[in-house]
C-alpha cells in the first residue's frame, strides 16, 4: 500500500465520507450486508463478530456494545476501510475457491508483500495451535481443511479471509498464509484488501494475548 502521512489519511477519509453520503442508504445496506435504521439514520455493520454503528450521512463509527473491546479504537485507517467497504461493495457472487493475494485481479499493480504479515501470525501462534483455535472460536471462525489449522474468518458480511497455520515441529519452523475468495476485489480495492489483512492478523494476535491473560 502507498505510504501516506496522517494528513493524507485524514483527507482520504473525508473524501470517502463525502462519497458515502451520496449513496442511497437502503441500497448500501442491501449491498453491504449491514442493517439500516431509517429513523435513526444509522447502519449496523458486523466487523469480526462485533457490531458497529455508522451514522448516515456523517460516517461516524462507534461500537454498539461498549462492554466489548473496540477493534477500531478510533483508528483512521480502520475508519477508511469500513467507509470504503460501504462505498465500493457490490454483494458479488462468491467463486468458492481460495487464492493468494498476488492472484487477485489488480493486485499485481500494487507493491505489496504479505510475508511480514503472515510471519507475525506464525511467530505468535506457531506453537500455540489450541490458542489459535480459541481465537477462531471467539470470532465465530469456521475451520477449513488447509494447513494444520485453517480458519475462515468473516471480516465483513461480504468478505471472508482464510488464515492458514502450519505448526512448528522438530524439523520445520511454523509457517502461515492468507487466502481470499477472488470476489473480494469487488468489495474493496486491492491495496485496501492488503491493509485489511494486516489489521486482521494484528487483531487475531491481540485477541490471543487477551485470552492468555484470562
What does this protein look like?
By secondary structure, the chain is α+β, with helices and mostly antiparallel strands. The protein folds into two domains: 6-88, no CATH class; 101-213. The strands form two sheets. Strands 1-2-3-4 form a four-stranded antiparallel beta sheet. A four-stranded antiparallel beta sheet has the order 5-6-7-8, with helices on one face. The protein is globular and about 60 Å long. 39% of the residues lie in helices and 20% in strands. The longest helix has 24 residues, at 190-213. It has six helices and eight strands. This is DUF3786 domain-containing protein.
Features:
single chain, 214 residues, alpha+beta, 2 domains, four-stranded antiparallel sheet, 6 helices, 8 strands, globular
Summarize, please.
This protein is α+β, with helices and mostly antiparallel strands and 214 residues long.
Radius of gyration: 17 Å
Please provide the ordered H/E string of secondary-structure elements: HHEEEEHHHEEEEH
Helical proportion, percent range: 25-40%
Contiguous runs where pLDDT drops below 50 for at least 5 residues: none
Helix/strand/pairing category: alpha+beta
Q: Assembly type of the shown chains?
A: single chain
Largest sheet: 4 strands, antiparallel
Mean pLDDT across all residues, rounded? 90
Shape: globular
Percent of residues in beta strands?
15-25%
Q: How many separate structural domains? A: 2
**Count of DSSP strands:** 8
What is the count of DSSP helices, taking H or I runs of 4+ residues?
6
N-to-C CA distance = 35 Å
The strands making up the biggest β-sheet line up spatially as 1-2-3-4
Amino acid at each position: 500500500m502507498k505510504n501516506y502521512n496522517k494528513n493524507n489519511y485524514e483527507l482520504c477519509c473525508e473524501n470517502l465520507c463525502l462519497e458515502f453520503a451520496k449513496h442511497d442508504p437502503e441500497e448500501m445496506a442491501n449491498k453491504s450486508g449491514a442493517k439500516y435504521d431509517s429513523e435513526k439514520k444509522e447502519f449496523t455493520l458486523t466487523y469480526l463478530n462485533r457490531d458497529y454503528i455508522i451514522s448516515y450521512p456523517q460516517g461516524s463509527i462507534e461500537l454498539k456494545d461498549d462492554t466489548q473491546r473496540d477493534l477500531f479504537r478510533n483508528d483512521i485507517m480502520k475508519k477508511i476501510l469500513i467507509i470504503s467497504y460501504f462505498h465500493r461493495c457490490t454483494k458479488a457472487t462468491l467463486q468458492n475457491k481460495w487464492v493468494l493475494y498476488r492472484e487477485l485481479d489488480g493486485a499485481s499493480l500494487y507493491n505489496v508483500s504479505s510475508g511480514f504479515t503472515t510471519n507475525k501470525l506464525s511467530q505468535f501462534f506457531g506453537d500455540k495451535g489450541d490458542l489459535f483455535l480459541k481465537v477462531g472460536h471467539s470470532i465465530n471462525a469456521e475451520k477449513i481443511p488447509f494447513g494444520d489449522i485453517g480458519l475462515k474468518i468473516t471480516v465483513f458480511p461480504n468478505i471472508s479471509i482464510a488464515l492458514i497455520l502450519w505448526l512448528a515441529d522438530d524439523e520445520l519452523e511454523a509457517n502461515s498464509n492468507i487466502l481470499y475468495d477472488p470476489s473480494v476485489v469487488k468489495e474493496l480495492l486491492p491495496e485496501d484488501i492488503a491493509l485489511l489483512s494486516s489489521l486482521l492478523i494484528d487483531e487475531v494476535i491481540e485477541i490471543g494475548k487477551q485470552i492468555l491473560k484470562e
